[in-house]
Structures are given as C-alpha cells and as structure tokens.
Specification:
8-stranded mixed sheet; about 25% strand; alpha/beta; 6-stranded mixed sheet
Length: about 300
C-alpha cells in the first residue's frame, strides 16, 4: 500500500468524545473505571454503548454484538476516537463481521494493542487509514507518565513523531524507510491463511509479545517466515517480550530467522506489554535507523 493514499484520522482536541470498544475479552470493572477516569483527566468526554459490559464466557459478549458495537462507534460522527477496553482474545473472531464500508467512510483514531492487533492490521489494510498501537482503557490506570504523554502526542500534536530508544539494542546495523505496521506476534501469526493475512512487503515490521516461551516465539516466527510474511520487509523493530524467557535467546532466534534479510533490526522499543507502552502509528512511512536507535516518521499521524 502506498502511504500517499493513506488517510489520517482527524486530530483530537480537548473535550472531544471518545468511544470505548470491547472487541475481545471481558474486563475487570475496577481497572475499567479507573481507566475511564484517566481518559477524563486527559480532557476527553467518554461515551459507552449499551452491552459493553456483557460477558459470554471469556469474551465481552457474543461475536455479533461486539462487532456491531464497533460498527456503531465508527458510524457515530460525534465520536472522534475509539479506544479499546482490553485485549485478551476475541478480536480475530469478529473480523468477518465488521462493516468495512462504514469503517472506511468514517476514519477516526482507533487504538489498542495485543489481541487488538488483528483489528489494527485489518483496518489499515482494508480501509486505508492510520491506526494506533497503544494503551487500552484497562491498562491506563498503571500506565507511566511517559505512556500517557506519548499517547497525547500521537493524538493531539501536529508534529512528526520521533521515537528515540535510549536503551535500544542494535541487532543488525543500517537504516531503511517503509510504512510501519505489525503488532502482537501471536495474533499476527494466527492471521496466516485467512482472508485477513497481512502483507509486510516494504514495511518496517514492529513485533512484541507476552507470556510465550522461547520455543513458541521460534515456532511462530518460523511459520511466518515459511508463509512469506517477511519477504521484502524493510526493517524490524522489536518491543517488549514480557515473560517470554531469556531475551538474549529471543534475539538469537530473531537473528537466525532473519539471517537472509539485509535489513536494520532494532530492539528495545518501549511498546507492548510493559509499564511503558508508547503509542506507535501504523500506516505511515518512517525511517528506522538502528545505529542511532531512532524511528522517525516522515508525516504527521493525524490531519
């Protein structure tokens, strides 16, 4: 996809209405209420649809209800951004049920991470506008100031974002440009062979995960490699791999998987399942410089 044709959702301003979506697992009410308070303290007016608190086993209600709620949030022109309540599992189940015409015709800020990566990836690919890998409502109560400031900068600023990784680890030297996309490794891996399988050719691929032992990291990366996910990627950026075993072992696996890819590889992005979870826009071009530990975007994320 050409970044020149990518739409940028409207920039937020204090007092804007944001909607809460629950496309995956049900969530803890205490964390949810605290997260809503954080959003209100940031200057947002929070809107909640009926049914968001439903529960269907480990899901936040039946698939069709979760999908319809997200469709309604996109169709509502008074809502300027949609923030997911929680990841967990369930986003992939609603991909066939989303109304991509409604979503495409109503581009707005959509943010989440982890399991929500399935929706971030699919909206970018099918609807052609920027999505945001960032905090969710139930993660905001424990979020660091850096996390909140990064979120505000992505949504409110008219400046091009620059992400400097002070404690970055250069796994492969170099510099390359491409559209940034990606997300949670396990979630993206499970899109293989589906109508929603992403293409990362020419992209700077961002990956993170949590709670996956190193052999599973190896297995998922190997499957994605065999499926052609990594052919022609421009660069690789690695976020947190929380509770995934020895990080040096993960780096060794990455080095082996990408040994035939002449690309810059930079680890240490404070994004994903960690105390810091900086907001990363997906769908716009950036330059990854693994020597300078820098990801610099060529364009602003919002319009």
């Amino acid at each position: 996809m050409d970044s020149k044709n990518i739409l940028r959702p409207a920039r937020l301003k204090p007092g804007d209405k944001v909607g809460i979506a629950a496309p995956a697992s049900h969530f803890d009410m205490e964390n949810y209420n605290l997260g809503v308070h954080v959003l209100e303290s940031m200057g947002f007016h929070v809107s909640v649809l009926d049914g968001i608190f439903d529960r269907n086993g480990y899901l936040a209600g039946p698939d069709v209800n979760r999908a319809n709620s997200l469709n309604k949030l996109f169709a509502d022109t008074s809502i300027k951004a949609i923030i997911c309540a929680r990841g967990g599992y369930g986003s992939i189940r609603i991909l066939p049920l989303l109304d991509y015409n409604i979503i495409r015709n109503n581009p707005k800020i959509f943010v989440g991470f982890s399991d929500v990566s399935a929706i971030l990836s699919t909206i970018y690919a099918k609807c052609g506008f920027v999505t945001f890998h960032g905090p969710m409502v139930t993660t905001l109560p424990d979020a660091s100031q850096k996390t909140k400031e990064s979120m505000m900068a992505a949504f409110f600023s008219d400046s091009k974002l620059e992400i400097t990784i002070k404690e970055g680890i250069t796994l492969r030297q170099g510099s390359a440009s491409g559209i940034v996309s990606g997300g949670n490794l396990a979630t993206l891996c499970h899109l293989a062979g589906t109508p929603f399988e992403p293409s990362f050719k020419g992209h700077i691929l961002f990956l993170e995960d949590k709670g996956e032992p190193t052999y599973k990291i190896d297995r998922m990366l190997t499957q994605m490699k065999m499926a052609g996910f990594f052919e022609g990627i421009a660069g690789l950026a690695l976020g947190f791999f929380e509770d995934c075993g020895e990080i040096k072992e993960i780096f060794s696996i990455v080095d082996n998987i990408f040994k035939h890819n002449d690309i810059p590889i930079l680890a240490g992005f404070e994004a994903g399942h960690g105390r810091n979870n900086i907001t990363i826009p997906f769908g716009i071009t950036a330059t990854l410089d693994s020597d300078k530990h820098l990801l610099s975007f060529h364009e602003v994320a919002t319009s």
